[in-house]
């Protein structure tokens, strides 16, 4: 046993994307591939100076092997303590909680979020900084630059550390502390929400629910919090055992991939509330009886009702949303007299706003919602927020949504995903569309006249950093929008996302299906970008 210095050569494809480095499992299994990236992280973040490192993942295939490698590399790189979730399990929001609570230098989260898993599935490595949030671009760029020049890595040779038992175990001069993955996170949530009120509503029969963990990381958290602490009947949590391949499913909580849950909420005798989370526990889908709540509307409704919840009873400092997310939250912010910030896609862009006290709630249309309690989006947090509101208001989800629309107006909104399209064709589509943008301002397309046509850029109001090339926007003179983006979270081909939005202030016209209300914008979006001609797709893979 001892420290070994292993010669290596750089890999050219280790540039982190929106949420860390994501590749297919066989790529991470290449000799030295994982080790190179981990060494680049350690070399970039500097001397740990006695501060712990947090480590865990969503339990997907290759999680266990990767954790052992990272532990041994941490022992060889001067760390004195690593806090690792029992059995290697730690959800993304729980990791953020632990980093913040114990003053860690940061954390390594092993997940490809909502991407499928298994031997041929996806794997990911993400570094979160000391504030608990995803590393900002200046850090991820530095990690990538280091990976390009790496010539060696260091690792401690020793037997694997058992992660089944809670406690402290030596690895060289380092302590591996195996922690309960749920305890610290649950304590934080109990400080925010009225668990007793929710418990009484559930056990009193006023609030029935189903939670689909999709065989991913939130299973243990949901069993402990929803069933054990809040008194929901056994069986409330479905697909609650994390599996290396997520049971062969796609752990993305949307209307397509959470099909079983949707059927139950839109079937006979549905419960009051339904929800699902994703692979690493940071996303959420909210449903009521015969009612789907869009993530954009969910953010706005949580903001409008925030003072009902103990942790937010003093009100909100501000709201932040990603640019493609609908403007429903903007209308709530305007009524409350607070700022609403529009950022690029990626939770890391919310970090500065949260740290500076400029925002309290944040959300993305891609089923991500969170607050300043951690520096990640948080699926179970959103579920508990909704449960707290439902327990107090004693109304149905649909009634709460429709009341919100009557007060603030409805932002008809939809996202069309074209998954796994040829990357060259996808980039050709975006390039050709961007070239047309300058000439489109002032043009009319039926009832819509283009007021703004650009590629969104963002100047951070805290550190004044600038992020460009964040999505192509067509904004019409009535406020309607079409946005086009290529997703940075997939590993196979490209995913084109098209976002469509139209505001409807008249309550008598707020009950259409979104695809019907947006039909003319959908046709216009396809026409302007020549989607079918350039991709060969005549319909989206997923509509939300």
TrEMBL record:
Entries under CDD domains matching the protein: PGM1
EC number in record: 5.4.2.2
A Pfam family this chain is assigned to: PGM_PMM_III
Cofactor(s) recorded in Swiss-Prot or TrEMBL: Mg(2+)
Annotated Alpha-D-phosphohexomutase alpha/beta/alpha domain residues: 14-147, 189-287, 296-408
Keywords: Carbohydrate metabolism, Glucose metabolism, Isomerase, Magnesium, Metal-binding, Phosphoprotein
EC category: isomerase
Reactions this protein catalyses: alpha-D-glucose 1-phosphate = alpha-D-glucose 6-phosphate
GO cellular component, one term: cytosol
GO molecular function, one term: phosphoglucomutase activity
Gene Ontology biological-process entries: glucose metabolic process
Similarity field: Belongs to the phosphohexose mutase family.
Record's protein name: phosphoglucomutase (alpha-D-glucose-1,6-bisphosphate-dependent)
Annotated organism of origin: Parathermosynechococcus lividus PCC 6715
Highest classification ranks of the organism: Bacteria, Bacillati, Cyanobacteriota, Cyanophyceae, Acaryochloridales
């Amino acid at each position: 046993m001892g420290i070994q210095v292993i010669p290596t050569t750089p890999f050219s494809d280790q540039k982190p994307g929106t949420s860390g480095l994501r590749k297919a499992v066989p790529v991470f299994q290449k000799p030295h591939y994982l080790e190179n990236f981990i060494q680049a992280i350690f070399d970039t973040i500097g001397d740990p100076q006695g501060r712990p490192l947090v480590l865990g993942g969503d339990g997907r295939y290759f999680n266990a092997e990767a954790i052992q490698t990272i532990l041994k590399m941490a022992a060889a790189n001067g760390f004195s303590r690593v806090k690792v979730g029992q059995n290697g399990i730690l959800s993304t929001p729980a990791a953020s909680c632990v980093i913040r609570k114990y003053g860690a230098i940061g954390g390594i989260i092993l997940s490809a979020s909502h991407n499928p898993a298994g031997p041929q599935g996806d794997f990911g490595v993400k570094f979160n900084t000391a504030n608990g949030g995803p590393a900002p671009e200046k850090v991820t760029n530095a990690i990538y630059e280091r990976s390009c020049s790496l010539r060696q890595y260091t690792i401690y040779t020793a037997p694997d550390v058992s992660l089944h038992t809670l406690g402290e175990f030596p690895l060289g001069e380092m302590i591996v502390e195996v922690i309960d993955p749920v305890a610290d996170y649950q304590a934080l949530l109990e400080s925010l929400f009225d668990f007793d009120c929710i418990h009484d509503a559930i056990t009193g029969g006023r609030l029935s629910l189903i939670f689909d963990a999709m065989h991913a990381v939130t299973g243990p958290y949901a069993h402990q919090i929803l069933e054990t602490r809040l008194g929901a009947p056994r069986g409330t949590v479905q697909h609650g055992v994390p599996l290396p391949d997520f049971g062969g499913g796609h752990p993305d909580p949307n209307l397509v991939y959470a099909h079983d849950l949707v059927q139950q909420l839109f079937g006979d005798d549905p419960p009051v509330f339904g929800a699902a989370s994703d692979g690493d526990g940071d996303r959420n889908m909210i449903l009521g009886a015969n009612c789907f709540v869009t993530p954009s509307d969910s953010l706005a409704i949580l903001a409008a009702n925030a003072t009902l919840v103990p942790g937010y009873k003093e009100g909100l400092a501000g709201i932040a949303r990603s640019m493609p997310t609908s403007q429903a939250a903007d209308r709530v912010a305007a009524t409350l007299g607070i700022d609403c910030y529009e950022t690029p896609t990626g939770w890391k862009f919310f970090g500065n706003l949260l740290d500076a006290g400029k925002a309290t709630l944040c959300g993305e249309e891609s089923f991500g919602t969170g607050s300043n309690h951690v520096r990640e989006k948080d699926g179970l947090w959103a579920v508990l927020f909704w449960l707290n509101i439902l327990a107090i208001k004693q109304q149905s989800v649909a009634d709460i949504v429709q009341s919100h629309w009557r007060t603030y107006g409805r932002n008809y909104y939809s996202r069309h995903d074209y998954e796994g399209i040829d990357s060259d064709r996808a980039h050709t589509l975006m390039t050709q569309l961007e070239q047309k943008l300058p000439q489109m301002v002032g043009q009319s397309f039926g009832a819509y006249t283009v007021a703004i046509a650009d590629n969104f850029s963002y100047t951070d109001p805290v550190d004044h950093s600038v992020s460009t090339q964040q999505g192509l926007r067509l904004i019409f003179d009535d406020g309607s929008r079409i946005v086009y983006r290529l997703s940075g979270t997939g590993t196979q081909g490209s995913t084109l996302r098209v976002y469509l939005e139209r505001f409807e202030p008249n309550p008598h016209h707020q009950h259409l299906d979104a695809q019907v209300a947006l039909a003319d914008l959908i046709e216009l979006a396809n026409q302007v970008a020549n989607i079918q001609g350039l991709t060969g797709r005549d319909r989206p893979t997923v509509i939300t």
